């Protein structure tokens, strides 16, 4: 019965719309700190870009974009993800359907190949793309998908982490949290990673580890800014050269 309910188009639209309005309310009542404070000036010369974040931290990411930052987000083809897709579109974010996987067979089955081409094409059109760094069922471990997109598009990866002081931790594989209104919030953007086109397998793994390190550091810093731990401020160099 639950499957029939959650795959009903009317129910999906209603829930997706409700989520969009809820997170708008959360964003409006959350006092956000953004690091670095000049990040919007820094990224202007690097558009379009690839924004990546952990599964479970994606609910508020549409609100860190400026109105002129057009973007599309990668969302799974799974029926449960349809609600997320509707919510994203209600928030003005386009969608690309597909997801990563740990095996080639699952990668094809889940639409990973077509989604990869779609993201590269989107970047060529001058539109930003957003995607989770970790693949389904393996939380907080950067997959190669975002590295492949950066390598073939020539665009930089900007790791971003978001956290709020008031939230409900959900019992899910991706460590998702339901952000609550009237919170202290933080959005931390790490230095960009540029992936050269002529990398061998070892070079690809090195880039994957670099994104992993920067995303972990951004996550720790975001948590510290909302009073959930301690982490030093991130040090930023030139966004045009970092990671090259």
Automatic annotation (TrEMBL):
In terms of InterPro entries, this protein maps to: DUF374
> Pfam families from the xrefs?
DUF374
Highest classification ranks of the organism: Bacteria, Pseudomonadati, Pseudomonadota, Alphaproteobacteria, Hyphomicrobiales
Species of provenance: Azorhizobium oxalatiphilum
Name of the molecule in the record: DUF374 domain-containing protein
Domain named DUF374 is located at 66-138
Query: Domain of life, per the record?
Result: Bacteria
């Amino acid at each position: 019965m639950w499957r029939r309910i959650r795959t009903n188009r009317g129910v999906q639209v209603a829930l997706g719309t409700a989520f969009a309005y809820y997170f708008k309310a959360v964003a409006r009542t959350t006092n956000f700190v953004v690091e670095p404070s000049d990040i919007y000036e820094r990224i202007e010369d690097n558009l379009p870009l690839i924004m990546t974040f952990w599964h479970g931290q994606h609910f508020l990411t549409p609100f860190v974009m400026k109105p002129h930052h057009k973007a599309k987000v990668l969302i799974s083809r799974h029926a449960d993800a349809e609600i997320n897709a509707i919510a994203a579109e209600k928030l003005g974010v386009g969608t690309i359907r597909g997801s990563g996987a740990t095996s080639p067979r699952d990668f094809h089955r889940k639409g990973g190949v077509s989604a990869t081409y779609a993201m590269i094409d989107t970047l060529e059109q001058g539109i930003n793309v957003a995607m989770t760094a970790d693949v389904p069922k393996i939380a907080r471990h950067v997959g190669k998908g975002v590295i492949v997109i950066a390598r073939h598009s020539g665009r930089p990866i900007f790791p971003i982490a978001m956290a709020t002081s008031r939230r409900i931790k959900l019992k899910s594989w991706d460590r998702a949290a339901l952000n609550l209104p009237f919170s202290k919030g933080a959005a931390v953007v790490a230095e960009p990673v540029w992936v050269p086109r002529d990398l061998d397998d070892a070079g690809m793994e090195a880039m994957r580890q670099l994104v992993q390190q920067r995303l972990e550091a951004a996550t720790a810093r975001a948590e510290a800014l909302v009073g959930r731990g301690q982490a030093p401020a991130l040090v930023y160099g030139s966004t045009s050269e970092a990671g090259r």
